Amino acid sequence: MKKVTRKSLLYKTGVEYGDYTINHVLGCSHGCMFPCYAFNMAKRFGNVKSYQEWIEPKIVSNALELLDKEIPKYRKSIKSVQLSFTTDPFMVGYPEVSDLSIKIINRLNKDGIKAITLTKGIIPEEVLNTSRYNEFGITLVSLDESFRKKYEPGTAPYADRIESLRRAHDAGFKTWVSIEPYPTPNIVKQNLSELLILIPFVDYIVFGKWNYNKIISEYKDRNKYYNECADLVISYCKANNIKCHIKDGTITNNI
Ligand code: SF4
After folding, report:
1. Neighbours of 84 (CB within 10 A)
2. Which of 120, 140, 141, 151 to mutate to test the pocket of ligand 1 (most atoms within 8 A of CB)?
3. What are the sequence ranges of the domains in the chain?
4. What confidence tens digit (pLDDT) does each residue in 198-228 have?
5. pLDDT reported for residue 215
6. Are strands 114-119 and 25-26 parallel, antiparallel or unpaired?
7. How far is CA 43 from CA 33, 105, 197, 233, in A?
8. 146: which residues sit within 8 A by CB, 6+ positions away?
9. CA of 84 to the centre of ligand 1 (A)
10. Neighbours of 228 (CB within 10 A)
């Protein structure tokens, strides 16, 4: 696997439900076509030249050394560290990425810092030996495998993701699901209830609309649609005692 080095690794996110984050890989073999915000940013700032280069990820070879330097500096202000915002910690087909992610989680835990992961891959069994205060999440916006192959071509099948999340829950970890970016019916026809019903065991759900794509603006009833979807998620969470976060801008009065 190709490598890069970085000057820093740990930084505070500006994201509404995040604290600190670590992005220990440049690029992501999952190659999402939503499109991927991280890819667009990497291209804009000249870190990658093309989609092809993006889906051939490079691991940050000095990640653990950087953490040894940075953790003491930020320790007092860190509540949790999310892996990751601009890559995937359990990237399909790249065991080196998962290995480094687990080493990073263990390094954070050594200082009592909670890691929160989010993946479109499989949560590996080895990570279930880490501290029980870590939290594991998957992204799940559909159950339709033809949608996945078109929009998230390098990711793990949905059923496998859910199964690995269930395993983490059964092992005693807090688990969560990010239902974002949720597609409108002109992208894929599906029933949100059928997805929700598969994840009653999770501790929290984040729901958000699909952004950054012309196809969304072509769906005239999108605001009404997202209001209805958000209502459904809120009711489901209430009924199942699940914490719920609806992303800013998903619910609107403009219908
Ligand atoms: S999994 Fe995340 S980082 Fe990777 S391509 Fe998809 S959206 Fe981008």
Report:
1. 23
2. 120
3. 2-179
4. 999 999 999 999 987 788 888 999 999 999 9
5. 85
6. unpaired
7. 14, 28, 38, 34
8. none
9. 10
10. 13
CA of 88 to the centre of ligand 1 (A): 6
**Measuring from each residue's beta carbon to the nearest atom of ligand 1, which residues come in under 6 Å?**
28, 30-32, 36, 38-39, 87-88, 120
CA distance 54 to 19: 26
What is the Å distance from ligand 1's center to 87 Cα? 6
Task: For residue 79, give the DSSP letter.
Answer: S
Residue 40 has pLDDT above 80, yes or no: yes
Query: Phi and psi of 155, rounded to 5°?
Result: -85, 175
253 CA from centroid of ligand 1 (Å): 30
97 pLDDT exceeds 70? yes
Ligand 1 centroid from CA 28, angstroms: 6
Q: What are phi and psi of 246, to 5 degrees?
A: -95, 125
Domain 2-179: which CATH number of 3.20.20.70, 3.10.20.340, 3.60.15.10, 3.40.1800.10:
3.20.20.70
The predicted model scores a pTM of: 0.96
Distance CA 214, CA 243 (A): 32
